[in-house]
Amino acid sequence: xxxxxxxxxxxxxxxxxxxxxxxxxxxxxxxxxxxxxxxxxxxxxxxxxxxxxxxxxxxxxxxxxxxxxxxxxxxxxxxxxxxxxxxxxxxxxxxxxxxxxxxxxxxxxxxxxxxxxxxxxxxxxxxxxxxxxxxxxxxxxxxxxxxxxxxxxxxxxxxxxxxxxxxxxxxxxxxxxxxxxxxxxxxxxxxxxxxxxxxxxxxxxxxxxxxxxxxxxxxxxxxxxxxxxxxxxxxxxxxxxxxxxxxxxxxxxxxxxxxxxxxxxxxxxxxxxxxxxxxxxxxxxxxxxxxx
Amino acid sequence: xxxxxxxxxxxxxxxxxxxxxxxxxxxxxxxxxxxxxxxxxxxxxxxxxxxxxxxxxxxxxxxxxxxxxxxxxxxxxxxxxxxxxxxxxxxxxxxxxxxxxxxxxxxxxxxxxxxxxxxxxxxxxxxxxxxxxxxxxxxxxxxxxxxxxxxxxxxxxxxxxxxxxxxxxxxxxxxxxxxxxxxxxxxxxxxxxxxxxxxxxxxxxxxxxxxxxx
Lengths: 292, 214
Fold this sequence. Notes:
The structure holds 2 protein chains of 2 kinds. Chain A contains 11 helices and no strands. By secondary structure, chain A is an all-alpha fold. Helices cover 80% and strands 0% of the residues of chain B. Chain B is flat and about 70 Å long.
């Protein structure tokens, strides 16, 4: 929460107004919270027994197992999507036109289709061709296909964000193409891409909750089952939401820290690629013009 | 592919709901985003804190969790709404958080002298924000606003979890009826492309029209 940089320090009247607005805001928020609590209480949703039903050990363990499955699915998908992303970025930067075209079609196509449609397709279509995947692997496959496309664009933007002189200088001192990539391009690009990659990981982790649509036993599904089993659906879902928030906030903080360090050290703009609404950071103008 | 052609009316009705949901929630999210972004740069600390908490909570919760919580959890508090209205609320609140961040990024691109000048000619904080800063801020974030629109159009598919009769929900029924998941889902993918490709072009045109040349 940074102080406003938009305008000069307030004068005496401005300060009085800001103080009055502060009091009104705090009162309004307190009023809303009180109303919400009264509603919870009126419907018996604050009863200790309802909360204990989801916080008791076997119940909590059911949720934590779901969380582990969620994290596993996210980790496996991220690892596989990184491989796909590298291939796609290399493809889109390749000298051969058909290769660039094929990679471009893959990236544009998979970014345009809703991830839920991909998940349902992996679960329903592949069995008609004799390939029966479990809900877990159907989800992983869909997340890999989609995030491979998004990561591919992030990697491409990372490489393009380097000044041309870097590659030219590397070639001039006699490095081969591969040496240039390994010693010059990747280390610099990776630092610039790190924040965007972590944000995409948050998106991916959130998307694993769509596994509930195909009966995968991840955190959200476990929450729904626990809720209907104990009659504490609201409490179970609030707990599930809290778990997602804690995990994702931790990752988001990491992304922000990487970005701040990045800016301070290199003064470089950040890279952003559109996949989900999560990828809404602005590309710096120069990098963007090179992307077009 | 005859499955798609035979059921074209089903696709069209689904697409119509998807489009309605997208346009309505985009409009509401835009309003939320403009107001909360103004909160986040306001000289009133509790308003800034409120904006930060809203964005932090909503952005880090999966959309599917919000849908299930609102539609299946909130009735326990006596709050029951139709699937469409629930989807509208959830999508607006969710997208509003991203809208806030986008517009705030735009506000940061407005030159500091603009706000100072507005203050100097005697505009109040609210006037400065509404008449001087926001209009300029929005022009610089047209591309991310377009991305947000496309992401929202795709996110409406998650409303199928609470049985809103949009594209994906209707296609579930079609898959059951026809047992041809590939053709049915390919049709769904094409329907989304029909929606997202022109919007991408539209925002591109808008960007060229309002771009700030400095």
